[in-house]
Amino acid sequence: MTTLKEFEDALREQGMNMALAILEKLRERDRSKRSLAPARRITGRKMTPELARRILELHGTTEMTQQEIAFQLGVNQGRVNEVIKRGKWLHDDPNAPEAIARDKAKARMASVDDRKRPERRAMKTLSSSQKKSAKPKSNNQAQLLLGDL
Fold first, then answer.
1. CB < 8 Å & 24+ apart, contacts of 34-41
2. Which of 71, 94, 138, 143 is the most buried (most CB within 10 A)?
3. How many angstroms separate the CA atoms of 76 and 146, rounded?
4. Residue 132's pLDDT is what?
5. Alpha-carbon gap, residue 52 to 145, rounded angstroms
6. CA 20, CA 32: separation in Å to the nearest integer?
7. d(C-alpha 138, C-alpha 140), whole Å
8. Are 65 and 94 within 8 A, CB to CB?
9. Quick one: which of 46, 43, 42, 72 has its CA closest to 57?
10. What's the start-to-end Cα distance of the chain, in Å?
C-alpha cells in the first residue's frame, strides 16, 4: 500500500498536473471542514436528573451510539449506559445508591489530596562485585521426586 505522499510523487513524475490539481482541491476542502474541537473531555460533568433525561431523549430520538452521546454531553459512556439500561440518575434523591457512591468517591479524592504522599526511600544498589559475592538464599522447601511416588 502506498502513502499519499508516494502517490503524489508518482503523479508528479508522470507529469499529471491535472490529477495533482484535483488532489490539492480535495486537501483544501478537507482542511476547511476540520474542526479544532477538543478530542476528549478533561473532566466529566456531574450527573443530574436533567442530564439523565437529556441522555434518554438523545437515545430515543436519534440513532447516536452511547459513546457519541457521552462525548456530546461530556460524560462517561458508562454513565450513559447506566441511565439507558437501569434508569439511574433520573431522580434527584440524595439517598440513591449512585448519589451515595458519588459522594463517597468525592470524599476519597479530597482525602487523598489532603494527605501528604510518603517520601520514596532510596533503593540500595549493589556493585557488580557485591552481586557476585552475594550468596543465593537457600530454599528450605522439600523437593518431591518421581521415584518418591
1. 41/71, 41/74
2. 71
3. 56
4. 58
5. 64
6. 19
7. 6
8. no
9. 72
10. 61
Q: Which of 134, 55, 131, 43 is nearest to 90 (CA)?
A: 55
Q: Please report, in tens digits, the pLDDT of each residue of the chain (149 residues total).
A: 678 888 889 999 999 999 999 999 998 998 888 776 655 545 567 788 889 899 999 999 998 999 999 988 888 888 899 889 888 777 777 787 777 887 888 888 888 766 655 566 666 666 666 655 655 555 566 666 666 65
Q: Cα–Cα distance between 20 and 98 in angstroms, integer?
A: 58
Answer for the pair 45, 73: CB distance below 8 angstroms, yes or no: yes
In 3D space, the residue among 61, 95, 108, 59 whose CA is nearest the CA of residue 79 turns out to be: 59
Q: What are phi and psi of 136, to 5 degrees?
A: -70, 145
Grid cell, residue 116, equals 501528604
Count CB-CB contacts under 10 A for residue 19: 15
C-alpha cell at position 8: 503524489
Query: Which DSSP category does 92 fall into?
Result: -
Q: Could you tell me the three cell numbers for 97?
A: 445508591
pLDDT at site 41: 46
89 DSSP 8-state letter: T
This prediction has a pTM of 0.40
